[in-house]
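Pilot study result, target chain (213 residues):
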Amino acid sequence: MLSTLSVDFVYLVLLGALWLSALAIYLPGTGLGEAVALGVLAAALFVLSRQPTNWGAALLIVLGVLSFLTLPFFSQKYGKWALVGLGLQVAGSLFLFEGKSVHPLTVVFTLLISLGYYQFLLLPAMRRLRAMPDTSADERLAGTEGIVMTPLNPTGTVKLRGENWTAYSDEPIASGERVLVIKRDGLQLYVEHLKHKRAPDAEENEVAEPREQ
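Predicted structure:
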């Protein structure tokens, strides 16, 4: 029969292997990180295979940890669902071994560490990624049409391709009016009323006409 210390150790090794695997996905490089993560994960699975492991509970932990660590980076709307992964992690830890469970203090400790990581590292990193300029995305947004959800005076909200964006304009534009995206400015869109439609970034491309002598 496994001792409480052994149960907690195996549980922590499994979590560490999954965290290293997610980190290797986020920070691909020479392959060293991926190799270390794969080695630790293989060691964790080997240790589990030598114990009275409930593999259904182990699968819950794997799904919980990986969904928690990766879902927010696929889309912002998945951020809240990622917290469900913590619930799966806790549920799996309670039934990981037949006849023995991970110590409650160990579960609480790993839960607090995970919440701290989510709040202070994962979410800020996700916001920084969204704020980074994306030339290809800028090009796709420029020239598209949207509808004003909250009045632009000068800043408001515009619905574009099913998503709400913060937008601003040089003139007040009422709700329900259609607008044209001129350019992306960080996390905001610069728009004009559709009746004043012009080519995106026209101001940058304007060339003064030579005067007649």
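One observation from the pilot: The chain has two domains: 4-131, 135-198. A full batch analysis is planned for the follow-on phase.
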